[in-house]
């Protein structure tokens, strides 16, 4: 399954490191990534791929916890749902 992860918050050192480290721990492969800074605001969008045994709900919860710890908002969606919402 592919997932879309968005990270939004005030820019600070370590956001990319914290998110990518947690994804590695969760065995989520980063397929594509884009990030930008605008007047101190940080935005990152990633596409990840889960292995067959992965628990989507658990991954979503763990990434949300990382977001709280580092002071950013992390949102995770199934890629198929994300794509469908973009076509509405």
TrEMBL record:
InterPro entries: ACT-like_dom_sf (IPR045865), ACT_dom (IPR002912), UPF0237/GcvR_regulator (IPR050990), UPF0237_ACT (IPR022986). SUPFAM superfamilies: ACT-like. It comes from the Bacteria. Residues 4-77 form the ACT domain. Belongs to the UPF0237 family. NCBIfam families: PRK00194.1. This is UPF0237 protein F0161_03495. It comes from Paucilactobacillus nenjiangensis.
């Amino acid at each position: 399954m592919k997932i879309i992860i968005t990270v939004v918050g005030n820019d600070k050192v370590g956001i990319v490191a914290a998110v990518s480290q947690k994804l590695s721990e969760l065995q989520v492969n980063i397929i594509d990534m884009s990030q930008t800074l605008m007047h101190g605001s940080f935005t990152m969008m990633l596409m990840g791929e889960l292995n067959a045994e992965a628990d989507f709900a658990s991954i979503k919860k763990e990434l949300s916890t990382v977001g709280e710890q580092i002071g950013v908002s992390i949102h995770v969606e199934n890629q198929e749902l994300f794509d469908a919402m973009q076509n509405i």
